[in-house]
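Sharing in case it's useful to others searching the archive later.

Someone asked me privately for the predicted structure of Fe2OG dioxygenase domain-containing protein, so I'm posting the question and my answer publicly. Question first, with the sequence:
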Amino acid sequence: MPAMSFRLRGFEATELNPNLDANSCEKRGKQSITDLGDGSEVVYVPKFLSAERAWDWFDYLDKEIPWTRPLIHVFGRSCLQPRDTCYVASEGLTALKYSGYQPHAYTWDEYPVLRDILQAVHDALPGTRFNSLLLNRYKCGSDYVAWHSDDEKVYGSTPKIASVSFGCEREFLLKKKPVKKEASNASEEQRHKRLKISCQDRHSFLLKHGSLLVMRGYTQRDWIHSVPKRAKSGSVRINLTFRQIVM
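And my answer, the predicted structure tokens:
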């Protein structure tokens, strides 16, 4: 992959810390950087955590976190969210609300291991100060996340979201947000060019146990993402997404 600038339009992004302590559980394994264009970027580190530490944390999260499967409202109807969830946030932050659901905000002190994971992420991403965490548990392949973007105003205009995965490997998909239809009088060449671009505006990542994926820049403004159903995924996956609430 060719070298690219880490300075995205409107803010300055930082690379993963190349000088992690030798005794840290994080590994400096290879990272892939996907330039989505127009100031959007994804960084993926498949071996962010050692396998042993990742399994220790997986067991804790699976057994100790107060998971719930809330009732949400989507497209005018009510349904159970197709995954378990939990929310942790620092005191005094604006309440989170999505799909008509406002989760209870647990504190970091109630689940100290989450502070350890937060510190590992902060060590790897110099300059970040995440203050909230959304946890999701996929109990089987029929649990999923539909297409969406995390573009709530509480996260600001260029949110950085760090996602740590544990357990079963699942696909993470990205695609460009829909654009307005071409005018009916557009030339055949223009329509062909638009079709060619749209077919390229999709990306897929297989999120491994102990991996880290970071979305930054204008990714939430211009892109949507999902974790689709997978019938052959029979075991549990747990995903932690660290965010910074700015208002």
